[in-house]
Amino acid sequence: MLLSIWGTQSCSDDGVYELPNAKAGLQNDLIKRSVGPNIVGSVIEFAYAVAQLPSEGNISEMMVEASIEGATGTWLENKSFDSNGSVEIGGAATTDGKITKVTFTKDTSAATLRYVYVIPEEAKGKSVTFKFSAKSTNGQNIVYNAGPYMISDMDMVLDLVAKDTEDAYISIADMKVYSAAEAAANPSKVDLVYLYRSSPANFGHALVAPNADDKYLPGVSLPSGLTNGTKLMKAFTVRDQQLARLQYGVYVDDVDLQTIDFTNAPNFITGMMAEYGAWVETADGTYKAYVYVNAVTSTTKEIRVSIKRLKVK
Amino acid sequence: MLITENASCYVSAFELLGSDLLTVRTKAAVIDTIQQTIHVEVKFGTDLKNLYPQFSLVLDAALDPKIIGKVDFSDLSQPKEWTVVSGNRKVRKTYKVYLTVQN
Prior knowledge:
The complex is a heterodimer. Chain A is mainly beta. Chain A has helices spanning 2-9, 180-185, 241-244, 254-259, and strands at 27-32, 43-51, 59-66, 75-76, 79-82, 85-88, 94-96, 99-103, 110-118, 127-136, 141-150, 155-163, 169-171, 176-178, 192-197, 204-208, 231-236, 268-272, 276-281, 287-297, 302-311.
């Protein structure tokens, strides 16, 4: 049986392997490289491969047309790479509205170019399609249609740093950190107060709603007008890939924030450390968010967080 | 659960998890199988309304009522009660769980 299996893998009668013959004509293929929710400001990335027999001609142009114009930074690679480095096979990509194009300047019959689409604000909550196409010098054309891909309704901000006490006021509504003076000027926007206390034991780094009991805001003199009753739930092992940028393949998606239940949730969380997180609902119920803790520093009383937020009302 | 001839009826271990599914105990729970009490000290800042108790019972025993989700322990003056039922279903012992919060 082993001999018969070995026999079927060879392409010749004498059992010697031969390279298969490439098909004639211009051919293409596509891989979507990015995974996870498609969030405004982040990217959707593809690798688009085009090839034909050298005897038929060379690639003259590769192009991508998006159904919704990409944001600034949308580009198409113009280099081919190998283990020795890279070689430019075309001029720098040009983007005109929805179309990004590379015109080839080197004789190349096969290329795989990376396409990076920066998701624009206009695409939020909509679906996007892509038309990849190529032309060759012998007059052939080929098209590969991709999508539709849903764009998330979430917003995301990375690496906000809050400090106890200078910039300790976090706004989910504005996705910003405020100083005490800024918080006093915008009290309705302040959803969380960050503080660090070395005692009582296990207090540590805390995220607390402005309306929480004083024992969860020891030594804090809140700016006037801060009254939001934010709800929080402590989480661990939710190391969202896009917020944490670690090795875990976990993603917080729109449906997670739409369905999470904050009934009986408290208005404080203590003992936060790196890789912990907090599910948050603003006092007026407008936003639900996941706040991921990237890092904490006890000596300087700092916390670095990244947030995914969804408008639910 | 299978009914056996085992008449033993006690709690052997007790765990209490928070909403992050990590322990909220500061140290091991103190279980008194004679008085049928469990005393647990939880960390300062524990959300007492959303806790998940986990009982370890003697072989073949069952717990009544079953724990199916979060339990609200916020009324510290009213200990929660669970009844351990022996493997032969003839012995029933009700345990009270007392929580205190670390200062």
